[in-house]
Amino acid sequence: EAGVTQSPTHLIKTRGQQATLRCSPISGHTSVYWYQQALGLGLQFLLWYDEGEERNRGNFPPRFSGRQFPNYSSELNVNALELEDSALYLCASSFLRGRGQTGELFFGEGSRLTVL
Amino acid sequence: RKEVEQDPGPFNVPEGATVAFNCTYSNSASQSFFWYRQDCRKEPKLLMSVYSSGNEDGRFTAQLNRASQYISLLIRDSKLSDSATYLCVVRGSGNTPLVFGKGTRLSVIA
Q1: CB pairs under 8 A between A and B
Q2: How many helices (H) and strands (E) does chain B have?
Q3: Interatomic CA distance for residues A88 and A19, integer angstroms
Q4: Which residues of B touch A (CB under 8 A)?
Q5: What are phi and psi of A89, to 5 degrees?
Q6: How do residues B54-104 score in pLDDT, each as one tens digit?
Q7: Closest-CA residue to B86 (of B98, B70, B68, B74)
Q8: Predicted local confidence at residue B23, as pLDDT
Q9: In Å, how far is B18's CA from the nearest CA of chain A?
Q10: Rounded to the nearest 5 degrees, what angle is found at the Cα of A24, between the Cα atoms of A15 and A47?
Q11: Across-strand partners of B84?
Q12: Contact between residue B61 and residue B1 where contact means Cβ atoms under 8 Å apart
């Protein structure tokens, strides 16, 4: 069974440009999470989608946005890129059991964004 | 105060050693606790959940102290393959996302 897949693996952009990152969750998982892992900062929560709706949002500016499609795949968009947006962007999926989370997130290998 | 705090390490230990990692969390309403493992340049993976009564999985033992808001992970008989970063992870009540600590790096040396 395929795990969480992300694309592109690497992306190089310049300041002010826009980046789009994509994620396909594990089959049967309805929740998709986006985390940013910058050097020395650990994983920072960005966005959480479930059943096409945004469930929660981390402490990031509005230029970080995303969506979830009917097939549960997701897209993260970062507008007006800044140098400090350079990081590994990790997507994870999980299955919401009833009204709660199972706790285990399955991560993709990430998309490494470099902003020059 | 950070939501989840860990000693960054690195912890350099010989094979066969016992090593303990500690973690504190700030949200007293936190409901779920986990340890994840992240190998160099790889994605994080769930190592084990942490239960109030403490739990063990082979060489790994996790403990939770809700009163002190403290979580620990003990690794016995360290193997070279245990070398990784260990992430302490906490979830609050309701539909809140998992909050990750920065991780503690472990290097097991032959």
Answers
A1: 46
A2: 0, 11
A3: 13
A4: 32, 34, 42-46, 49, 87, 91, 95-103
A5: -105, 115
A6: 899 999 999 999 999 999 999 999 999 999 999 999 988 777 889 999 999
A7: B74
A8: 96
A9: 25
A10: 55
A11: B106
A12: no
